[in-house]
Amino acid sequence: MSYTFLQGDEADSANNSNAGDEKVHVFYGNTQGIMGGSLSGIFTITNDDNTSTGGQDAEEWYTIGARQKGKMGGLDYRVEFYHQFGDAGNISNTCACGITGVEAGSGNKADRDAQMFGIRVGKTFANNPMKPTITLWYDNLSGVDDDDAAAGDFGQFDTMYDTGHKFYGFQDFYLSRTGAGTGFYGMQDIAIKTKWALKPGWTAKADMHWFMTATDLGGNDSDTVRAADATIANDNTLDNDLGSELDLTLVHKYDANTTISAGYSHYFTSVTFGELNGGGNTDTNGLNSNDDSDWAYIQIDTRF
């Protein structure tokens, strides 16, 4: 078991009002021998005293959840679930989500009510000379919908200090911890990840992601929040498709101290992704931001 304290931000103003301060308390526990692996639990308290936007203690909120990881029946697996509750401060005004009963600069603040669920199952075929590993992956980060707007809740899950580059595609379109990269409509990530030992010292990896919003943009559960979102307010043709990404990686263990990696990624853009990230349907940049994107790199890692 462990306790961690983070002074996430220290930004005292001239009159010592503590505007911008953020403190995080993390309680973590882990135990072994559960269902062929380990069970861990986490509880965080985030106290954000940023008074610069509303004149009050903007946010005090909590995250609680657990993760089970292990091996069972020849499969590697991981299951996790987290729930967030507490204050959301003035973020509901920033996101323009149509959340009722919230006023900027007042004590009327939105409540957080968000969840994250993830499951991964993998299999390594050790008897095959290339020892291929195939992993099926699904993450669901909740977003704001009409039920949230009517209840005065902010439903977008905050990933806090995650390493998004590792999980949600190497082109890094989804690094925003607050969910701004998907318009605060949450995200679903369905992925297939593979790994192959081509020959001694050479490893190839191929990952394919399919991204979607968690909020149904084509259904009746998003009419209010879409109408309040100036980016897409006048476009009722959007669906949940945020696009897909292919990540290819080749790793060579050159010697005991040096590893050479090369990678290529291609993002297959969607209309929804273009409008949410390129200016919206009222901006020609948004309407025309439908080109796919490419990214490649070479990395040499030497340890002395």
- Average pLDDT over all residues: 86
- Report the order of strands and helices: EEEEEHEEHEHEEHEEHHE
Strand content: over 45%
Count of helical segments? 6
Radius of gyration: 22 Å
Oligomer: single chain
Low-confidence stretches: 52-57
Give an overview of the whole structure.
Strands 1, 2, 3, 4, 5, 6, 7, 8, 9, 10, 11, 12 and 13 form a 13-stranded mixed beta sheet that branches. With 304 residues, the protein is mainly β. A hairpin with a 4-residue loop joins strand 11 (241-253) and strand 12. The radius of gyration is 22 Å and the shape is globular. The chain has one domain (2-302). The two termini are 34 Å apart. It has helices at residues 91-95, 146-151, 164-167, 223-228, 271-277, 284-287, and strands at 2-9, 22-34, 37-48, 59-72, 75-89, 110-124, 133-141, 153-154, 187-199, 202-212, 241-253, 258-268, 293-302. It is 11% helix and 48% strand. Residues 52-57 have low confidence and may be disordered.
